[in-house]
Amino acid sequence: MPEHTITFTDEDHALIERVQSDRGLPSLEAAAEWLVKARLRRAARATTGRGRALYLVDPQPRKERQ
């Protein structure tokens, strides 16, 4: 798989360090990869509709034919 270089802001770096620490990941790269995969999983669930609320739709009464 090709590797990509990404430039992080100070806030991004702090977030990745926090994820690394919280998840016990071995490196910043592993934490960044975990974040990307987590986002992809959420996007896939949203696309497939899993986790969406379903609401009952009241059918409108049919007009009688004359």
Helices, strands, pairings?
Blueprint: H1 10-23, H2 28-48
Helix pairs in contact: 1-2
**Low-confidence spans:** none
Oligomer: single chain
Share of residues in strands = under 5%
Query: Cα-atom Rg, whole angstroms?
Result: 22 Å
- Largest sheet properties: none
| Global structural class | mainly alpha
Secondary-structure element pattern, one letter each: HH
Q: Tell me the helix content.
A: 40-55%
Shape: elongated
User: How would you state the average pLDDT, rounded?
Assistant: 82
Instruction: Please give the alpha-carbon distance between the first and last residues.
Output: 68 Å
Q: Would you count the extended β strands for me? A: 0
**SS field, number of helical segments:** 2
